[in-house]
Amino acid sequence: MHCRLPSACVRMLHRSIGLLLFIDLLFMSSVTTAAPAITIEPTFPPAIPAASVPTEHPHTLTGDILLYRDFPAQSLGKRNILVYLPPGYHSADHRRRRYPVLYLHDGQNCFDGATSFIPGQEWRFDETAERLIRTGAIEPLIIVGIYNTGMERVNEYTPEKDDLGRGGRANEYGAWLVKELKPFIDRTYRTQAGAASTGLCGSSLGGLVSLYLGIQHSNTFRRLGVLSPSVWWANRAILQTVATLPKRLPLQVWLDVGTYEGYTALPDTRQLRDALIAKGWTLNVNLAYLEAEGAQHSEDAWSLRVEPLLRYLYPSTK
Any idea where the domains of the chain sit in the sequence? Predict the structure, then answer.
């Protein structure tokens, strides 16, 4: 830069510095004052009586059961949620009472023959719970039925991918249960929110994911119903999951299998039982084990085991 007058050089230099400072401040402002990220809170659907929804087949619902249609699941997919409320929940005498909760996978199969995978075949959880609660045989509890999402069921109910690359989203499914669904249920209903009062239950892949998520989230779920679990998944990876536990977790486990469920089901489930015992679970103390003679892999077969399962996991406190 060449200037004849020193004062002119000084003025030009000041202008150049000022311009550079302005550009620098403009850049820093764009970095430090960027618009904050917008968090969109999920909108939860209203509850409606489950029996009020028209269906192709007749409803077989018993008791006070509510339906949340298209309940949001941020990273997965919307699904229906059913909530069974025990007898006396709304009575004035029990308005301060809080209840343990059992979360069921494959929720469309658990209460209603109108929505079950095979029409008319369901677990009869509502009829069984209603009868056992009214007779004082078990502790009154809230039961939450979580619909599977059809094509994504295998992905959500399996801890890792198999040799064909299928599955492996159980951790995402578990995170949704823990961070979104359970907090909603605890806010909306009078629950006993602690882990000791909260259970997971399912059959087949639902049994597999119940045990897996119980292990991964033992600070959230402590009562597990593991019926006819798909131990075979991913080269029996669940056996390794149990074997690598440093010690027994504070989980109360119901484990069962039918003797007519296929060639590998019975020996696989026995291996799982033995793996749990090797880690410190004790039969008839914190591990119940049943081999159902002649039972097949079906809703009808599992419905016959709901009563002993509920009696074990939610015994009467009277």
Answer: 1-34, 47-313
What six digits make up the tokens of 72? 């949001």
The torsion angles phi and psi of 141, rounded to 5 degrees, stand at -145, 160
How much is the pTM? 0.87
| pLDDT tens, residue order, the chain (318 aa) | 444 444 444 344 344 434 433 333 333 333 344 445 554 556 788 999 999 999 999 999 999 999 999 999 978 999 999 999 999 999 999 999 999 999 999 999 999 999 999 999 999 999 999 999 999 999 999 999 999 999 899 999 999 999 999 999 999 999 999 999 999 999 999 999 999 999 999 999 999 999 999 999 999 999 999 999 999 999 999 999 999 999 999 999 999 999 999 999 999 999 999 999 999 999 999 999 999 999 999 999 999 999 999 999 999 987
Helix axes 205-216, 233-243, angle to 10 degrees: 30
Q: Which CATH superfamily is domain 47-313 in?
A: Alpha/Beta hydrolase fold, catalytic domain (3.40.50.1820)
